[in-house]
Amino acid sequence: IKNLYYGAALIHQNFRGRNEKVMASGAFGFDPWFNLSYRNPKLTDEDDLFLNLQLGSSHMRNQNISQGEYDQQILSGHASLGKRFGLFTTLTGLVGYDEWNVGDTLPGRTLSRDGKDHYIVLSVGYLYDKRDLREYPLDGAFVSLAATKYGLGESEVDLIRYQIDVRTYQPLGSDISVGARGFGSFLSGGRSPSYLHAYFGFFDRIRGYYSTVLEGENQLGGSVELRLGVFKPRYATVSLPGLPSEFSVWRYGLYAGFFADAGTTWYRTDSFADVPWYAGY
Fold it and tell me: What local confidence, expressed as pLDDT, does residue 160 receive?
């Protein structure tokens, strides 16, 4: 019960009548936070440009395995501008500001001695997404590449993180599909605080080690999945009171899945040949 958090969000789905999204959201309890965001999917009629603005603040209980539990206050503001190239490719640039404030200033929690790291963030990302259905793809490919610079000389944080995520989905007949994913995250530059490390056990997990937290500056992982159709997706028209007509067509199906995962994390001071790998299915 003491770890519960709860909140609400308010969103304007069609601000100014141009499909712009304006949202305010917040939560209270164990990890309270507040966030304001704005998304414009098409800035001009001529260019296929989109804009995202975000301002947020959070008070988070850190669960870092090498540092122990402690509280940290995070303030962030980011602005990103992107361009679509056709239906499947986007290129995005981001500029922002991050601030991490830790009350208990043990070494490794922040790079600054006063427990307050603040730095400029610059990032560029490439995305190719040709999956047939984003929620449960059976055919297509996904490629995400990103490079993020933390700090430009204004603070002790001076790091670059490179990220890659490649996924492919290949049908093997009408009711069988194989999906595979390979991903990595690699850090370079100066000293790194724990909040910029890479982890398994939170967002990314390895089957068989679902609750095991693996920490490092770098991360490498992969997974493969066999999807077997019990019955293929089909459609039904369902009219419910109060439900808009555009939500009356429902798509449903049933698949069985078999999974296998592998991954590892390591620090730049480690020898990659000696790093233990974890695998499960």
Answer: 97
- Pairwise CA distance, residues 77 & 82, whole Å: 17
Tokens of 85: 């190239």
Reported pTM: 0.89
Contacting residues for 247 by C-beta, under 8 A, at least 6 apart: none
Dihedral sign from CA coordinates of 153, 155, 158, 161: negative
First to last CA, the chain: 32
Q: What are the tokens at 6?
A: 């709860």
Residue type, 155: S
Report the alpha-carbon distance of residue 257 to residue 136 in Å, rounded: 11
32-74 confidence digits (pLDDT tens) = 999 999 999 999 888 899 999 999 999 988 766 666 678 889 9
Longest dimension (CA), the chain: 62
Element of type H or E holding 262: strand 249-266
Instruction: Kindly list the distances between the CA atom of residue 174 and the CA atoms of 114, 169, 229, 230, 253, in Å, as whole numbers in the listed order.
Output: 60, 13, 8, 11, 13
Taking the CA atoms of 190, 193, 195 and 201 in sequence, report the sign of the dihedral they define. positive
For residue 63, how far is the Cα from the chain centroid?
18
Phi-psi category of 151—alpha, beta or left, where left has phi over 0 and alpha has psi -120 to 50?
left
